TrEMBL record:
Domain of life: Bacteria
Cofactor(s) it depends on: Ca(2+)
Keyword Chloroplast: no
InterPro entries assigned: Alpha-amylase-like_C (IPR054174), GH (IPR017853), GH13_cat_dom (IPR006047), Glyco_hydro_b (IPR013780)
Chain segments annotated as transmembrane: 439-461
Every Glycosyl hydrolase family 13 catalytic domain range: 38-344
Protein name: Beta/alpha-amylase
Pfam families: Alpha-amylase, Alpha-amylase_C_2
Keyword hit for Lyase: no
C-alpha cells in the first residue's frame, strides 16, 4: 500500500516532465552567448578580515570590506543562477578612499583592500573550475590625481591636460589619458597581457572617457569590449522607461540586432530600478520580471548588476552602494533569472537569432527570434489588463509551448495562433511541431491509476472480511 502511495505522489512529476529533446549543444561558444553578473568588489562579500583597514559600514564613501576572497566564497551562488561570466569592478591599486576602483594609481598592482595577486588568480581559477569566465574592468581613459604620470615630465604626452568632465563624482576632474598616443596604447596592451599572465583572466571592459568610433587599437580579445563614461546607454534608458510601471506602452523597445552589445538595466551611474518602481507605486518584483525577460531575450548580452536578484534598493541615490545581503532576496526573481539563463544556454535563437517585431499595441509586445531553423516567440504584456493577439506569420501544424508559464498555443481553425497574456506577465515560447496529446503516456498513467484503485478496493474488502 505504501509503495502505491509513493508512486501516486510521483505521478505529477512524470506528467510535468518534458520528453522533447534539448536543443543541440553549442560547441563554438561565442561572446554573444554569455550572460554577465557584475560585481562591485567592495560591496559584495567580506571573505578576508585581515584586509579590513579603514572599513566603515556607516560611511557610504568608505570601504565596506568586500574582497576577492569573498567572491570565491560566492561563486556557487552566481553559478546557480545560470550566469556564464562574472565581471569585476576595477581591482587595481587605487587612490585613498577609492572603494569603487575607478581612480587607479597603479595599473599592475591589486588594491590591498581587495586582496593580493594570488587571490585574484584564485578567483579566476575557481571561476574556471565552475565553467565561468572572468572579466576585469580596466579604466584606461583616466587616472587618479596622484598617479605618477601626472608629475612625470617624461609622461606628459600620456596625459591630455584636459580633465574629465562628468556629472559622476567618481570621474569628474580626473586627469584624462591620451589613448591616441602609441606609447600609451602599447602600455595598456602590455598591461592586459600582464593580467592575463598573472591571473588567467578572460577579458576586459576597457573604460574610456569619450565615446569611441571605429576600430580601437586596444580591443584585441573576443571577451573584451569598450565603454565610455559619457555615452548614453540607449537600451537601458528605453527599458527603464518602458517597464518602470504597468500601463506603459512598449512602442520604444529597441529593434536593433547588435548581438555583441552588453545590455544593462541597473548600474553604478544611475539609481536602482527597484527604487524607481517603488516610487511609481509598483511591485518591483513584477517590474523586474518583465524587464529581465526582455533583457535576456532581446539581441545582446544581458549584464545583471549585483543585488538585482534581491532586489536591492539604493533609496534613489546611485552613490549609495549597499553591501550585498545574501540572507535577503526574493526566490521569484532568482528563479526567473535561472530560467532565462537556462533558455539562453539551450536555445541559440535567443543569443544569435534574427529579431523581428510581430505585434506592439497598447502595452502588449510580441517578437520572434530565429536561428538555424529554430524559432522563439517572446510575449510581454505590460498592460494593466489581459491582452491577446493573433499570430498569422507562422506555418501550419505548429504549437507554441510556454517555457515560463507552461502554456500551450495550438493553431486555430482559421489558421492563426491566438496568444492570450494576463496583465503584467511575460512568456517565452518555443515554436515546435504540434505533438498533439501523448495518448500512449496518458493511457499508461490511466492504467496505473486504475490498478491502484482496484488494489485499494481489494485491500479494503480483504480487511473487512478479516475483521468479521
Amino acid at each position: 500500500m505504501k509503495k502505491a502511495l509513493v508512486f501516486i505522489a510521483f505521478i505529477p512529476f512524470l506528467l510535468s516532465f518534458n520528453f522533447t529533446a534539448d536543443a543541440a549543444e553549442r560547441e563554438d561558444q561565442q561572446w554573444q552567448d554569455e550572460s554577465i553578473y557584475y560585481i562591485v568588489v567592495d560591496r559584495f562579500m567580506n571573505g578576508e578580515m585581515s584586509n579590513n583597514e579603514a572599513v566603515d559600514l556607516e560611511d557610504p564613501k568608505a570601504y565596506h570590506g568586500g574582497d576577492l576572497s569573498g567572491i570565491v566564497d560566492q561563486l556557487d551562488y552566481i553559478k546557480e543562477m545560470g550566469f556564464t561570466t562574472i565581471q569585476l569592478s576595477p581591482i587595481m591599486e587605487n587612490e585613498k578612499g577609492g572603494f569603487h576602483g575607478f581612480q587607479v594609481s597603479d595599473y599592475r598592482k591589486v588594491e590591498e583592500h581587495f586582496g593580493t595577486m594570488d587571490e585574484a588568480e584564485r578567483v579566476v581559477e575557481e571561476a574556471h573550475a565552475r565553467d565561468l569566465k572572468v572579466i576585469f574592468d580596466l579604466p584606461a581613459g583616466f587616472i587618479s590625481k596622484n598617479h605618477p604620470w601626472v608629475n612625470d615630465e617624461t609622461k606628459s604626452p600620456w596625459v591630455t591636460g584636459n580633465p574629465v568632465e562628468s556629472e559622476h563624482p567618481w570621474f569628474n576632474q580626473l586627469p584624462q589619458v591620451n589613448l591616441n598616443h602609441e606609447a600609451v596604447q602599447n602600455y595598456f596592451k602590455e598591461t592586459m597581457d600582464y593580467w592575463r599572465e598573472e591571473t588567467g583572466v578572460d577579458g576586459f571592459r576597457i573604460i574610456v572617457s569619450d565615446p569611441v568610433s571605429g576600430e580601437f587599437p586596444l580591443d584585441d580579445s573576443p571577451n573584451t569590449y569598450i565603454e565610455s563614461i559619457q555615452e548614453s546607454n540607449s537600451f537601458r534608458n528605453m527599458a527603464r522607461k518602458a517597464f518602470r510601471k504597468a500601463g506603459q506602452f512598449l512602442d520604444d523597445l529597441e529593434t536593433g540586432e547588435n548581438h555583441q552589445q552588453v545590455n544593462q538595466i541597473d548600474f553604478y551611474d544611475i539609481s536602482r530600478f527597484t527604487h524607481e518602481a517603488v516610487e511609481e507605486g509598483q511591485n518591483p518584483i513584477t517590474r523586474w520580471k518583465l524587464a529581465l525577460t526582455y533583457m535576456f531575450t532581446a539581441p545582446g548580452i544581458p549584464s545583471v548588476y549585483y543585488g538585482t536578484e534581491t532586489p536591492m534598493d539604493d533609496g534613489g541615490d546611485p552613490q549609495n552602494l549597499p553591501m550585498m545581503n545574501f540572507k535577503s532576496g526574493d526566490e521569484q526573481l532568482k528563479q526567473r533569472i535561472e530560467k532565462l539563463s537556462s533558455m539562453r544556454e539551450q536555445f541559440p535563437a535567443l543569443t544569435r537569432g534574427d529579431y523581428q517585431e510581430l505585434y506592439n499595441e497598447e502595452g502588449l509586445a510580441v517578437f520572434i527570434r530565429e536561428y538555424d531553423g529554430q524559432q522563439m516567440v517572446i510575449a510581454i504584456n505590460n498592460s494593466e489588463e489581459t491582452k491577446s493577439m493573433s499570430l498569422e506569420e507562422l506555418e501550419d501544424g505548429l504549437q507554441l509551448r510556454g517555457l515560463l508559464h507552461d502554456g500551450l498555443v495550438r493553431q486555430r481553425s482559421d489558421g492563426s495562433y491566438r496568444l492570450g497574456m494576463e496583465r503584467e506577465t511575460a512568456d517565452v515560447f518555443i515554436v515546435e511541431a504540434n505533438s498533439g496529446y501523448n495518448w500512449l503516456f496518458i493511457g499508461f498513467v490511466g492504467g496505473v491509476l486504475a490498478l491502484f484503485v482496484i488494489a485499494v478496493v481489494w485491500i479494503s474488502l480483504k480487511n473487512r472480511k478479516q475483521e468479521k
